[in-house]
Amino acid sequence: MIGYAFFRLVSLCASLAAASIVIFGVIEVIPGDPAAFMLGVSATDDAVAALRAELGLEGGVTARYFSWVGGMLVGDFGTSYTYRVPVSELVLARLQVSLPLTLYALALSTAVAIPVGLAAAARRGGTADYGIMAATQLGIAVPNFWFAMLLVLVFSIGLGWFGAGGFPGWEAGFWTGVKALTLPAVALALPQASILARIMRSSLLEVLGQDYMRTARAKGLSGRQAVVSHGLRNALIPVMTILGLQFSFLLAGAIIIENVFFLPGLGRLIFQGIIQRDLIVVESVVMLLVFAVIMVTYLVDLTYAAIDPRLRRSI
Amino acid sequence: MKVPAQLWFGAALSSAFVVAALVSLVWTPYPVDELSIDQRMRLPGDGYVLGTDQFGRDMLSMLMVGARTSIAVAIVAVGIGMAFGVPLGLLAAANRGKPVDEIVMRTNDLVFAFPSLVIAILITAVFGPSAFNAILAIGIFNIPVFARVTRGGALSLWTLDFVLSARVAGKSRLRISLEHILANITNLLIVQGTIQFSLGILAEAGLSYVGLGAQPPTPSWGRMLAESQTLVSLAPHIAAFPGLAIVLTVLGLNLMGDGLRDILDPRLRSTR
Amino acid sequence: MRYGSRVAAAILALGVGAAQAQDRIVIGMQLEPPNLDPTGGAAAAIDEVVYANVFEGLTRYRSDGTIAPGLAESWSVSDDGTVYTFHLRAGVKFHDGSEMTADDVKFSLDRARSDGSTNAQKSLFAGITDVDVVDSVTVKITLAAPNGGFITNMAWGDAVILAPETAERAATEPVGTGPFRFSRWVQGDRIELVRNPDYWGERPALESATFRFISDPTAAFAAVMAGDVDAFPAYPAPETLAQFDADPRFQLLIGSTEGETILSINNGSGSLGDVNVRRAISHAINRREIIDGAMFGYGTPIGTHFAPHNPDYVDLTDISAYDPELSRKLLAEAGAEDLTLSLKLPPPSYARRGGEIVAAQLRAVGIATEISNLEWAQWLEQVFRGKDYDLTIVSHTEPMDINIYARPDYYFQYDNPDFRNLMKDLDLASDPAERSEILAAAQRIIAEDYVNGYLFQLARTGVADARIQGLWPNAPTQANDLTGVSWRE
After folding, report:
1. What is the maximum span of chain C, computed from C-alpha positions, in angstroms?
2. ipTM entry
3. Are the Cβ atoms of B216 and C359 closer than 8 angstroms?
4. Which chain B residue has the Cα nearest residue C354?
5. Where are the alpha helices (DSSP H) in chain A?
6. Alpha carbon distance B231, B238 (integer Å)
7. pTM value > 0.90
8. Using CB atoms, which residue from B34, B215, B234 is nearest to C240?
9. CA dist C64 to A196, C149, C167, C466, Å?
């Protein structure tokens, strides 16, 4: 087990190094000089040069790569070219929106998906099952930006129940914040809930076919009792795996929804960074996200390996 | 074997759009490259079955040509994913547990770890927006999907008797992969291909929506949606139809994929 | 929160029976400023937040485009036109409590024109040779040559006065002399300003102002409709203005900008160097269709590179009237019938929509185009600096910028010695009638050379709550001056 963990740790470090080179390389070849962009069409050449020097854009590629990586190793992610504040500060501020939004969306999707998946599995092959499965197919097929647009049209412009977007900040009150995140969370949750409900249903059906379930029924437990006491827990394992994936996906993947609802989240930070050529923000934030996902994958793998030694060999 | 109703329904829905796309190659009700500002935002009816858009172009014609863009982008992206992913997956499975396997799988994880939309935006920032770059961005993320599916399917086959006997007979790993493994995972690949195809259409719509896909005047569903957004209260049909087109196509493909899986993948049939 | 405060206000009004005047405003803006130092960045959004609100210069723009005294109460010019003496207002304080004196003026101007300066409009200060402090409220500025536009230059946002102690931090914590002081910036969302109680001028009616950044036109529409923002002075979706117009809760603020929106032609690219090909392109363009189709009717057709609201403007639209027949004939004569041109479009909707319409109009006379939609950074690099383009659409928003045609290295690559001489004459001319004459001749030369396709003057299309008064309808410079803004009782 120790050997396996060490082996995976080496490959993890190699992955991170590879990721940093890829990210730095892509950022390096993006056309568009940040300094020229910031100073616009009337800028004189010497003003642009002065700004480039000020931003630390001069110097060799390798030197700049190592100073970037070296900085990150000690927790310094650089200073935003445009905002002129440390990137870590920006990320922390954005996480206050992105993290709750992601958790909210996941909570909504689980709250809907698990009972719906249960209901479908319980009425397997019946009309309700077919209806639910058709509805989830629809939920997957609807582009979430289009759905978000419809939500705004109905609930903020039409009914006036919610604001059209924006985030007032948590200091405006917990419920005010939750209210502002509701429509975006619903828009994000729809496809996730649909996927989750389908997985819940099929994993439950698989579990129900297992021997220990038959044993439980034979012991005299009712169908419902058997499902709740034995089936549910086992069926939730694949659901949890998918939830983990969706979490990392939503954290940065909400760019389009953040744009529709003009939320200052992590996704839009990256998006704006690319448009405004605030490249240090882009490379550091992307690297952070990649790091987080790789770390989570590593820990999950280790946990599985600890539980089930057979997995160690097959990787 | 009974063909499930959803397969029929899904296939009918998707082929309707494929047919529309094909027909648009030779005929559309109106030309899509001519604007007539005085005819703009006409409601459906009166010569225009689905009305006209903000430049006075016929919505039906735009949707037909847009179907072509979506389908072309998604097909090529799936092709890229299969062309690279399947050999990689076969390679990894044939060398299970060896460094090659480890490298392939870790690279897979690495690609998965990148936020896909961000990478798509970066690609267009480097090369400029175009349908080709949208294909590239979607295709890259299809590679690990196919590699993983292929490897998973192949791994279970390598332990089966007929493969073992082929090995005993002295066939090389490469030959076994091509002759025995690949043939037996085709069903799996068809099902995954259908799913990735529908995801590709959604992804193309999302990329075009943020302006990174096919460039005007080539119609694209995602861009039609983006450009009509502010008109939604003036002329709802302009925003409604491209959205519906996306929903119905993806729905059709998903239903078809599900139905195909039921027929082609016996392991999963029991859970239906 | 806004909903809550409205309810509270309504309850208060009912209960007490007296109307409680609103003293807060939320202004919507499409772009977020990258930083808040107008002397260190070009983004229009910087000035749209801080100009006249947080920072002030020696002089300032009024809403009609004329220049008024700012921190300088008055000034005098030497007879040869090279020495300006500014008399500053006494007792003006920066937001940190320190006194604004002649030393600060000298510091600010010297900083802007220094070698390491990152001022985006460094040329505004190019003529200055010396800045001398006479006493604490008097500054003497010496120019190398007379410059009729110097007082206007000093009104730009790039020429505002900062204090040496706080200038370095102006990007994130601006400290100025204006009627509002900077309070808070939630990056990606909003900037908050509060009233400066120690302001030297008339006390503004607003207690606080919030600028919210909403880049998406649909979201902007939704935000105004839902009452999340009170005013959106540069509203990005002209197609929805009719809906606001019909709704008594809102008012439209339609005015003019300094933006000549043109189809820029790369005069140095292949057959586009041929004046007849450019002429053919100009005659293929139907301005009305572009204004209707791209701007939903908002915008004034122009025939040259000059703002129609300027008294010296000459209407030359007839020189390039819509005539596709003539256009086809000219192309045939020039032997340029199979032309394929690149059309590179920056992000604003006037360019993206206008570009699709222009492409269709050019196609109608047999010119094929390849559209590529670019971000601003790409546009700057490829088109503006790299000159790697055939056609582009862009609005030139600098006021009085016809002199860019005298720069052969400018991205149009237009090189006409006659025009350059005319601009030299203009610099030396001080008599208004003579200047008018020169400007008219200049407008005519570029129109007859068909340097670019002249489309329309960009309109300022804003929308606001019907109860708000005092917002600028025009945009003589990029600003949202809130000094005179208030809520109607």
Report:
1. 80
2. 0.82
3. yes
4. B55
5. 2-29, 34-39, 45-55, 61-73, 87-122, 127-141, 144-151, 174-208, 211-218, 223-226, 232-253, 255-260, 266-275, 279-307, 310-314
6. 8
7. no
8. B234
9. 59, 17, 30, 22
